[in-house]
Amino acid sequence: MRILFVHQNFPGQYLHLARHLAAQPGHEVVFITQREDAALRGVRKLVYKAQRTVTRHLHHYLKEAEAGVLNAQAVARVALDLKKSGFIPDVMLGHNGWGEIWYLKDVFPQTPLLGYFEFFYRFAGADVGFDPTEKPSFDSAPRIRTRNAGNLLGLEAADWGQCPSQWQKSTYPERYRSMLHVVHEGIDTDTVVPDPQARLRLPGSDLHLAAGDDVVTYVARNLEPYRGFPSFMRSLPAILSARPQAQVLIVGGDEVSYGARLPQGHSYRQRLLDELGDSLDRRRVHFLGKVPYPVFLKILQISAVHVYLTYPFVLSWSMLEAMAAGCLVVASKTAPVEEVIRDGENGVLVDFFRPEEIAERVVAALADLAHFEPLRARARQTIVDRYDLQRICLPGQLKLIAQMA
């Protein structure tokens, strides 16, 4: 079988699937992407570049749409060259987030296309208006409606769609839900495992930490409000005061993935450090930036309490991996989290906007780790039962591909 993948950030959600398919005899796997570095054995990678940047002074409603068109055109050109070379895929898979799949069916009209759909933007009931201190203006509704132009183009271009969670599927208009299949890309629970003997020497430090120590962890791609970074930081003075031996490990960059951009040179990390000032014991709060995956796993394995907070938005892999590693997860009581975590059964749920409640639950867990051991075990079992890569999610994706092809 010939399979064509498209994702600007190779390999993205297709890491395990593309690797598996490329390893099977009789498959030819091609991957169109913007990313020049990185490779997968057996996967032929083709790099595309948009021919120009978005038009200056374009109406701000339309900037994402034009960026999507530019990406879609560039991908279509690469696909046309593939077609001329004799490569006709039996099935195509691509992430819709950046417009890349919009014109694939115009190149290969007979080939089924499975689009990856993460989130349909809404004026109410999701991320917009979630923070009560931020009042949306009238401009928000038409801007968001227009922002979904790319979602709608992708839905019309694809034959079927894949969503990683039921809640994320529910954000899409009802008329499209019958074509959307909920299959998570999967957590490798054979690799992400608890390790009671885990130890970690912090990079650039003489500090050694081990499983069983008072270690509080927080992970996000970037340290920003959508992932509850301000609430987490505001909980730390109380946590550190109540637990004099506690160490806090924070993984994430200083950019902004979601929500409003900050002025050049500013970061939420520095804003919160300035706000908290001397109330925060900086000697016990460690900002690790973005770390290699093996280090990330060690951080989870030595974690006594892992804090995960999110707006009603796309659910992070890191929360599921933390559960698979046997972490006690203290998480926000928000819709995407509640699909996975049940308070008091396989984790602890807290109010996203109440740092004092976050601190209270973290301190209580650190004070009696043995009491929460059953929650840790059930957290891992939840991932094994519902999100296991080899036994649940990869077979689910392969089944979709087989049905389409």
TrEMBL record:
Biological processes per GO annotation: lipopolysaccharide biosynthetic process
Span of domain Glycosyl transferase family: 26-191
Keyword annotations from UniProtKB, A to Z: Transferase
Keyword Transferase: yes
GO MF annotation terms: glycosyltransferase activity
Pfam families: Glyco_trans_1_4, Glyco_trans_4_3
Entry protein name: Glycosyltransferase family 4 protein
Organism of this sequence: Candidatus Propionivibrio dominans
